[in-house]
Amino acid sequence: MKILTDEQMRKCDRDAIMSGISSRELMYRAAQSVYDSHDWHCKCIYIICGNGNNGGDGYALACILNANGYKVKVYYIENNKGDALYYRDRALLEKIDISNISDCDYRCDIIVDCIFGTGFKGAIDCRYSDIIDNINMSGAYIVSVDIPSGLNGTSGIGLGSVKADKTVAIQCAKTGHYFGDGKDRCGQLIIKDIGIDISNCGYRYVDGELIDYVFAKRLSNSNKSTFGKSVVIGGCINYCGAVKLANIALCSMRAGCGLSTLAVPRNIAPCIGEAVMESTLYPLNCNEDGVVYDCNDIDELARGASVVVIGMGLGRNVKEIQAIIKHLISIKGLKVIIDADGLNALSTNVDILREIAADVLITPHPKEMSRLCGLQVQDVLADPIAIAESFAREYNVNVLLKGSSTFITDGTCGYIMTEGGSFLSKGGNGDVLSGAIAGIAAQGAQLLASAAAASYLCAMCGREKSYVYGEQGVLPSDIAVSIAEIVKRNR
Fold first, then answer.
1. Is the torsion defined by CA of 434, 428, 330, 344 positive or negative?
2. What pLDDT score does 242 carry?
3. 384-395 and 366-373 helices cross at what angle (nearest 10)?
4. Residue among 103, 183, 245 at smallest CA distance from 416
5. pLDDT tens string 436-488
6. Largest CA distance in the chain
7. Other C-beta atoms within 10 Å of 43: how many?
8. pLDDT tens, 347-401?
9. What distance in Å separates the CA atoms of residue 391 and residue 105, rounded to the nearest whole number?
10. CB-count burial class (<10 Å; 0-12, 13-18, 19+) for 217
11. DSSP one-letter string for 367-399
12. Which spans in 137-196 are helix H?
């Protein structure tokens, strides 16, 4: 399945029309797809139409409902134009009841929302805001055509938008269905193909198929070195987090990695050692502020390693952390994952990334991304895909931008993982994710695909555990130890 931005979908619409499918035909197909997506048996249906193409879908739907014997009323907000006007005139010829929105009492069984389409941007003006509030408070079952009106089709920003019970996405899901407020406003999302070719654009939807791709068949004639070695560099006196760090290593091994080493400052090695069983432990030189860069230490850790993860709980010894990162990313053939305090250190000198030989992945949440880009958090949330793609291209790195939907890109292609939720909103889950990425990438999978697959695994583990503990009760350790179960089930 593909997920497209609003701009990408508009281009595909234009290409379809250029290929010979009329815009009126596409509008009719969209209306038919909405009709096919719902059981309309009820007493009263209202369709509320804007003046654009989304409104035209509503008029076409009214004609289809009317032809099938359903009682329907249409309420318009402004005069229509183009193909929307064509279907409005057709509805009038069929003697469908069409009235101004000022006459709407909102007392019905179903409201079909056809006010704005996926191209909506900016703020909702007062008049439309009042209409949307009335829809949301009506008590009717709300069906939105393509996207809830007032929701940005690309970023998903739109707290004042329609809150649908069901959204029928035309041709494909849009990024706005999953990012920002999208998940909370769309209700049940139904995707209906109407014959528009989207094969040459968009982002790959992450599902269980990717698991088969990244996990190669394991041969019996193998040993621990066959499946790679991961190294985790993290921890400091203030964030010794023995259990958390041990879970990262355990997560790497649950994801199939053959060997895992925890590298921690020497002054916390004893307390970390108490929690380590499957992994090896490497004490690093340190001072009272945390880890200290020693080129011999880093060379030793990198020797034989497939992937190195750096940053979890590493503290604020910024210059030393920067030196370690600079050394790691200079090693050709090494996969390097930078997370947490590694990103904090990187944000004070991003130009370190301009000279890299390694394959690098950064794993920021929106606030960390804002620091890396020198932007406000709201700027990142307003266009997360474009921000991540731009950064990846400029610095030649892979970017995993976290959220309830996660975007993973190398600047050219991308994955969208939509399965996240509030069950992941707990400190430590990002650390577990980095461990899972390392465990997959160590076995030979590309870093970009490993990041996408690991984000899916962690989300699905969290979702399943939420059925046991509730969304508020899921712990990062629950996810770490469950990864192997999800891998097994999807293969």
1. positive
2. 61
3. 50
4. 183
5. 999 999 999 999 999 999 999 999 999 999 999 999 999 999 999 899 988 88
6. 83
7. 9
8. 999 999 999 999 999 999 999 999 999 999 999 999 999 999 999 999 999 999 9
9. 49
10. exposed
11. HHHHHHHT--HHHHHHSHHHHHHHHHHHHT-EE
12. 182-186
Q: How far apart are CA 345 and CA 371, in angstroms?
A: 10
CA dist 183 and 137 (Å) reads 19
Give the side-chain half-sphere CA count within 13 A for 273. 9
Q: What's the rounded Cα separation, in Å, for the pair 57 and 28?
A: 7
Task: Give me the sheet containing 173-174, strands edge to edge.
Answer: 173-174, 2-4, 203-205, 414-417, 406-409, 398-401, 359-362, 335-338, 307-310, 229-233, 259-265, 280-284
DSSP string, 110-138: EEEEES--TT--SPPPHHHHHHHHHHHTS
pTM: 0.94
Q: Rounded to whole angstroms, how far apart are CA atoms 231 and 324?
A: 13
Structure tokens at 334: 């090494």
Q: Which residues lie closer than 8 Å to 288 by C-beta, 6 or more apart?
A: 237
Q: Which SS3 state, helix, strand or coil, does residue 169 take?
A: strand
